[in-house]
Amino acid sequence: MPATRKIFREFIARKGLKSTQQREIILDEFLRSGSHLSTEELYLRIRAKHPHIGYATVYRTLKLFAECGIAEPRHFGDGQTRYESTHAQEHHDHLICTGCGAILEFEDPGIEQLQEQVAAQHGFHIERHRLEIYGLCNKCLPSRTEAAQ
Amino acid sequence: MPATRKIFREFIARKGLKSTQQREIILDEFLRSGSHLSTEELYLRIRAKHPHIGYATVYRTLKLFAECGIAEPRHFGDGQTRYESTHAQEHHDHLICTGCGAILEFEDPGIEQLQEQVAAQHGFHIERHRLEIYGLCNKCLPSRTEAAQ
DNA sequence: CTTAAGATTGACAATCATTTTCAACCCAGG
DNA sequence: CCTGGGTTGAAAATGATTGTCAATCTTAAG
Ligand SMILES: [Mn+2]
Ligand SMILES: [Mn+2]
Ligand SMILES: [Zn+2]
Ligand SMILES: [Zn+2]
Fold first, then answer.
1. What separation in Å is there between the alpha carbon of A135 and the centre of ligand 3?
2. Can you give the CATH number for the domain in which B23 is found?
3. Which of A85, A105, A120 is the last residue of a domain?
4. Distance from residue A19's CA to nucleotide C25's C1', rounded to whole Å
5. Same domain, yes or no, for B12 and B64?
6. Residues B78 and B100 in one domain
7. Are residues A100 and A48 in the same domain?
8. Which of A25, A128, B83, B87 is the most buried (most CB within 10 A)?
9. What is the three-state SS of chain B?
10. CA of B134 to nearest chain A CA: how many angstroms apart?
11. DSSP 8-class letter at A79
12. Best mutation site among B121, B131, B144 for testing chain A: the one with the most A CBs within 10 Å?
């Protein structure tokens, strides 16, 4: 987290941007809050303590976070962009429950490696990827099964 | 393709919907056109020959195609939904070039199997998944490399 | 063939997330 | 302090998609 702050400050400096109260407040709340929050969810949390901060500023700032690499944007099928902090989190992919919306994270070196292999076969240079598996989590599976019988 | 038509007709019948000129025309153009077309792209093609068909009807009809399984919706990061026909196409995933927008398809049984394994470890029941790999295709890689040097 | 109930359509308004505008305002360097 | 230029909040604009609704078409019955 200190590293995260440092990365953002240096990014700001390098780009000739400016360090502002709003950006600090938004970064604080972003790092404090749980992962996979939508822009709106983060905005609402911030507004509780800082009602003067505007919606557009939260949008703009989250894009800056993504640009400098301290946040990853995610798209889980509801029409909203969600962000998660990259600090102390290796790359990972997601299992998304279509029943309750739960999000499980996983990382599978085997899958990652096979992706490299596939890309190589096509002469393709990977910049990033996204693997999302949708289905029912272990809590939702039983209820769905009994509904069907 | 005949199977595709049949599937759609039966779906229409089963649901108590109706077979209309518009739906036939849209299905024709959908099957004739290339894959990964956005709704707008398909609409424009249709409009060339059938200017009376409305935008909303194309949207509605593509959703029907997806509902009965003859089309798969895709999201490649530009904000549009694209559809591809499932006829004569097994499930597959995509390599998307961030340089020229080219879309390469692939299918890797190893990756699919590892996904099953990961899901099983989490007691998760897979309904569907999406794997998208973004990067540079073999045409765009050279130009990017020389620009960087 | 005619009819009627109900599904469908096209034009257009409405949504929803996100972006842009722009005048007022704040930061950093001199 | 001062000033140039980045930043902000409010509101308007955007772009994809969906909802509305009166007119129209389908289909199965009569
Ligand atoms: Mn995550
Ligand atoms: Mn494809
Ligand atoms: Zn669940
Ligand atoms: Zn390319």
1. 8
2. 1.10.10.10
3. A85
4. 14
5. yes
6. no
7. no
8. B83
9. CHHHHHHHHHHHHHCCCCCCHHHHHHHHHHHHCCCCEEHHHHHHHHHHHCCCCCHHHHHHHHHHHHHHCCEEEEECCCCCEEEEECCCCCCCEEEEECCCCCEEEECCHHHHHHHHHHHHHCCCEEEEEEEEEEEECCCHHHHHHHHHC
10. 5
11. S
12. B131
Distance from CA of B124 to the nearest CA of A (A): 5
Output the CA A102–ligand 1 centroid distance in Å: 11
Residue B71: per-residue pLDDT = 96
The mean per-residue pLDDT over the stretch B59-66 comes to 97
Exposure class string for B29-46: b at 16+ Cβ within 10 A, else e: bbeebeebbbbeebbebb
SS3 A24: helix
Which of B:34-93 have CB within 8 Å of A? 75
Examine the domain organization and report whether B16 and B60 are in the same domain.
Answer: yes
What is the number of domains present in chain A?
2
Do A81 and A116 belong to one domain?
no
Domain that holds residue A27: 2-85
Q: Measured CA to C1', what is the nucleotide nearest B12? A: C7
**B105 touching A, CB under 8 A?**
no
Task: Read off the pLDDT of residues A51-108 as tens digits, 9 standing for 90 and up.
Answer: 999 999 999 999 999 999 999 999 998 899 999 999 877 899 999 999 888 999 999 9
Together in a domain, A107 and A49: no
State in Å: Cα B36 to ligand 2 middle: 6
